Fold Glutamate dehydrogenase.
Amino acid sequence: MYIAQILEKLRKTYPHQHEFHQAVTELLHSLAPVLKNPIYQKHAILERLVEPDREIFFRVAWMDDAGKIQVNRGCRIEFNAAIGPYKGGLRFHPSVNESIIKFLGFEQIFKNALTTLNMGGAKGGSDFDPKGKSDAEIMRFCQAFMDELYRHIGALTDVPAGDIGVGAREIGYLFGRYKKLVNRFDGVLTGKGLDWGGSLVRKEATGYGCVYFAQEMLGARKEDLAGKICSVSGSGNVAIYTIEKLHEVGAIPVTASDSKGMIYDSEGIDLSLLKEIKEVRGGRIEEYAQHKRNAQYTDVKDYKSGTNGVWSVPCFAAFPSATQNELSLADAHTLLNNGCKCVVEGANMPSSTKAAEVFLKAKICYGPGKAANAGGVAVSGLEMAQNASMHPWTFEVVDRKLRTIMKEIFENSAQTAQEFNDPTNLVLGSNIAGFRKVANAMIDQGY
Ligand code: NDP
């Protein structure tokens, strides 16, 4: 009843925010067993959680190389700071809108709570498309974006990071402008360059963390990834470092993709070729097949309607690492029919609601994004700790901490799932574990 009331109010207040509804609906349904405790309704916890603390929208005017003024929309949605300063990435992509940033900011609250570190939840971004822009255009856009954002962020207030379309280059330009505006060098952004406050392993953290999480899930069932075929979607930060770690643990990642198409390489993805195309040249995944003769390229327009070509490749484990709702109900059935035993979400909400239900019903190892991809923000938290102490840690130290955090996230989620009599359901386990930490902090601190 309580859940239904909240969802109904949300639908009426924000009728067009589909991704936000999807994220809230999924979370609230899985909280049903813990919400039997009347304390959460008494303190209006759900009402307060689904409404961000504040939403900041702003105009970003910048000049392109032809001397023409361009205008984009920027935003920062600060959702909840019950357990620490706001923390969450910035996304630059033409699809960015209020619904997408709200779904991401909402999920970030619970993901950050799972990391064991003290970070609240936020997200931001712009409908700016970095593709095809010159370096100088990217710099001018980032500077214009920061000209407004700097008023709202701070090392103990709100600490943004990267996401789709925001990598090391963008963080550099954003940080440079922030420093000039406030005349202070502090850890206001994470994902910084290694020479100026960044943390080792931050670049690799989300992908590595996903594989560590997969190892924990599989290990609990006495299985592992060694020698197993894995499918990965995307070819950005998360996908590349998932593929790198899969190779390291002896698995065979055979796919990668971008928004134009996918490649299948039965010999295992050639990581240095992939990095050369994507990280060095900023090229398209299609180029991979031009350099590697046995690899097959399939264009998106040749995918079967309503499906993603990556998920038609038979695999033991699938790592959706591109974007939200990239894995449909039909894809979920195809994966299971082809013998897939493990799905690990590198991206945020990559499985549609129905696809996620199918994975849960099949009781395969299903690692939801909030838990499985929390390694990125966890190492961002470690970057903040290193900045505060002005003492950088070695690669081995950060990697060991990341591995421990991923293990703890798995154990916390699995134990919570067990406590609520649904031991294989890590959606329920991770959602309830994250929720309890935030909700209890809200109760402790008053309304
Ligand atoms: P990148 O920008 O580095 O890469 C994104 C990849 O996904 C690209 O290959 C891109 O292809 C593809 N992609 C993006 N949008 C679409 C789309 N609509 N359809 C098909 N493919 C698409 O981003 P990240 O790797 O950083 O992020 C990927 C996912 O992981 C996102 O969901 C993000 O929120 C999530 N995530 C990222 C974290 C991080 O630390 N970076 C942390 C936790 C979660 P193309 O180049 O053609 O656009």
Notes: Residues 395-419 form the longest helix (25 residues). Residues 83 and 137 are 37 Å apart (CA to CA). The longest strand covers residues 69-80. The chain has a mean pLDDT of 98.
